[in-house]
Amino acid sequence: MKKITIFKLNLFSRLLFLFLTPALFTILNFAFIWHSIFYGSITFIVIIWGVFIIITPLFGRIGCGWFCPFGTVQDLIGDNSIIKIKLKKPLNIIRYFCICSFFISAFIFFFIRIKQGAINGFQLDLFRIPSEFDGENTHLWLYDTLGILFIAFLLGKRVLCRNLCFLGGLSSIGSRFSRLVLVVDKDKCNNCGLCTKTCLGKVDIDYYINKNGLITDTECLKCGKCIETCNRGAISYKLIWNRKKYQKMINSNCT
Ligand code: SF4
Ligand code: SF4
Ligand code: SF4
Predict the structure, then answer these.
(1) 203 lines ligand 2 (CB under 6 A)
(2) Range of the domain at 222
(3) pLDDT in tens, 143-159
(4) Phi, then psi, of 124 in degrees rounded to 5
(5) Which ligand 3 atom sits closest to the C-alpha of 222?
(6) In the chain, which ranges are E strands?
């Protein structure tokens, strides 16, 4: 019987949410967080994406790696982009600009509407957005998906994730502390570089192998692709509560 690997599960999960996107667009499209703030509503989108951000210090960016349909759309392009950008690190200045513009503009409207008496702060209203946007969703979904595909085709997959997405920026802050990390067993690794070449998050895994074996990059999506790619079984998930202690232990075992 064929073994179900973590990455096969990951692929299944990402494709499932991608196919659900047209039907659940206003729940899966996190841009509607802006509209939720505008309407002073705590909607499904706010709750779902809020949970993904809150759990990043524990499980890293699993929302990006297992759930977000816009990340999966970019992966469909693979490595066939017109312009090949080799950016080692994300452009955080652009990311922070996107985060600030998104929330500041939404909250400006929020306070204006409070002053006008249109809303009284935040209220739980899970289905506020679908009732407001019904009928336009199909077009919005099509434009968004085609726009993302175009950017990925032009610049490469996950360039948008690494530089422009405000949720990517927020989740990368929390994932600095992620307790779930990928660990490379340096005794098994032969430095073939395959994992770096195929990494979905474009993480330079070689760098982490040579450093201490812990893949702690904030762009890691916890997708498990590197585990599947490594034919020497050198990479695995590990829950590490105290990274410093773990690294000290590795270093003392090496000496
Ligand atoms: S960075 Fe943004 S677009 Fe990319 S997977 Fe994460 S939430 Fe989705
Ligand atoms: S694919 Fe495996 S053996 Fe090759 S560099 Fe990565 S961890 Fe090492
Ligand atoms: S390092 Fe591994 S788990 Fe993280 S994004 Fe790359 S392939 Fe996925």
Answers:
(1) no
(2) 179-254
(3) 889 999 999 999 888 88
(4) -70, 115
(5) 3
(6) 41-42, 123-124, 180-184, 214-215, 235-239
Taking phi over 0 as left and psi of -120 to 50 as alpha, with beta for the rest, 157 belongs to beta
Ligand 2 pocket residue status of 184, Cβ below 6 Å: yes
**How far apart are the C-alpha atoms of 164 and 184, rounded to whole Å?**
30
Residue 128 lies in a domain: no
Going by alpha carbons, the residue nearest to atom 8 of ligand 3 is: 223
Q: Are residues 148 and 96 in the same domain?
A: yes
Q: Phi then psi for 67, rounded to 5 degrees?
A: -130, -50
129 Cα to the center of ligand 3, angstroms:
33
Q: Are residues 183 and 168 in the same domain?
A: no
Q: Residues 106-134: pLDDT tens digits? A: 999 999 999 999 999 999 999 888 766 55
pLDDT at 123: 95
- By DSSP bridging, strand 123-124 and strand 41-42 are parallel
Task: Please check whether residue 13 lies inside any domain of the structure.
Answer: yes
pTM over the 0.85 mark: yes
Claim to verify: residue 85 and residue 210 sit in the same structural domain: no
107 and 190 share one domain:
no
Q: What's the rounded Cα separation, in Å, for the pair 34 and 244?
A: 38
* Domain assignment present for 14: yes
pLDDT of residue 81: 82
For 255, other C-beta atoms within 10 Å of its C-beta total: 4
At 25 the pLDDT is 85
Q: What's the rounded Cα separation, in Å, for the pair 42 and 125?
A: 6
DSSP letter for 27, please. Answer: H
* Residues across the chain: 255
* Over residues 230-244, mean pLDDT: 92
pLDDT exceeds cutoff 80 at 84: no
